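[Q] Does anyone have a clean C-alpha cell version of this?
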Amino acid sequence: MFLDRPESGSKALLIHIQKFDSELATAEELSELVTSAGLVPVGCIASQRRYPHPGTFIGGGKVDEIAVWIKENDCDLIVFGDDLSPTQERNLEQKLDKRVLGRTGLILEIFARRARTHEGKLQVELAQLEHASTRLVRGWTHLDRQRGGSGRGAGASSGLGGAGETQLEADQRMIGDRIKRINGRLAKVRGQREHNRRARTRSDVRSISLAGYTNAGKSTLFNQLCSADVHAEDQLFATLDPTLRRLELPVIGSAVLADTVGFIRQLPHSLVDSFRATLEEVSQADLILHVVDVAAPLRDERIDEVNQVLDEIGAREIPQLLVYNKVDLVGELPRIDRNHRGEPSRVWLSSVTGGGTPLLLEAIAERIGEQVIETSVNVKPEDGRIRAQFFELGAVMREEPCEDGSVQMHLRIEESRLRQIAGWSE
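[A] Here you go.
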C-alpha cells in the first residue's frame, strides 16, 4: 500500500545532521519527534555537513559508517532529522537495506497518531498522500510490473494488447483520485468555517487565536482561560484538531478563543497546505496570542520559526500579544510588559499554576478594546437587566445610590458596547 507507515515500537537509528547553530536543540528535538511518533530510539549518529550530498544527503563515508552500525546493532528503520529527496531516500534504502524516514515523513506519522476528529484525519491523510505520491518507487521493483490485458476484449483489432498499466501508474491514479475526494470534503469544511466566522462578525464577537511552537503550553493555557478539557500533554503535537470556546473578557464581554496545531522548525509545507482550513482560524483572528515556552533553549529562534509560519498563512500582520509561559520554571513573577505606546506587548504567566492569567485577560481586553471610555450612567430600579449586563462585562468601577432610587454607575467600557446595552443614540 502507498501509505507505508512504520509500526509502533519500531527501533529507530537517528541520523542528526549537525549545523553550525542550534546543534543541541535540534538533536533533542529529533529524539522527541521520534518518541512522539511511537518509535524507540536505539542510537544516534551525527554527521557534520555544510551542504547535502545529492545522492545520499550524507555522503558515501557516512553511509558506510551507518552500514557497520546496523551490522553490529538491531534496528528496524533509520530516521533523519532533515528532509530527504525521494531519490536520496531510495538510494539510502538500497544501500542500507532498511526503511529510511525523513523529517516530513516523521512529522506526518506523529500527526496520523494524534488526529482524533474526522476533519483532522482527512487533513493528515491528504498530507500523507501528497508526500507518498513522490515516493512510490522506493527500493522495490514490483511497482514496474505490468497489469495489462491480452487485448482480446470487445473492439480489439488484434490479439496483441498494449503494455498495460504498471502497478506504479495504478497507485498514482488511486492517490490522485483520493486526493480529489479529500480536497472536496475539506472545501465543505472550509465553507462551514467561513460561514461561522461571518456569523461571529455580524454578532460583533471578537476572535482570538492561540499560536506558538509545539509543546509551548497552548492547550494548558486554553483550558485555564476557558475552563475547558482540551487534551494537553507534555509532548510534541499533543493537539491537532482546532477547538473553539467562549472567553469572557473584562470590559469587552464575550469573545471566541481558538486553540490550533503547534508549529515547529521546518514545518512541512504539505502540512501547512493540508491544515489551511484549520489555520484560517489564526489568519482571520482579531488578535494572536503567541505562546512562548520561556524555559526553552533558544526561545527567540522558536519565536522566529512561528512568525515564519504565520507569514506563510497570511497572518503575519495580525496584532500579536506575546505570552511568556512557564514562568514557574525560571523563577520569574507574572507581569505585563508594555511597548513605547503603553500597550501590553508581553504577558508573563504560568498556565499550569494559573498565576498571571487574570493579567492576560486584562491585556487581551486592552489590546482588542475599541474606544474604551470612563463614564457614569444613571440606572433606574426597573432597569435591573441593564445593571446586570454592566456587571457581567466587568465594566463597573463603582456605583452610588441616588435619592430617587436610581443607581449612578461609574463604568469603564467600550463606547459601542455602552450604546448597545443602554440604547444610546448618536
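[Q] Thanks! Anything notable?
[A] The radius of gyration is 28 Å.
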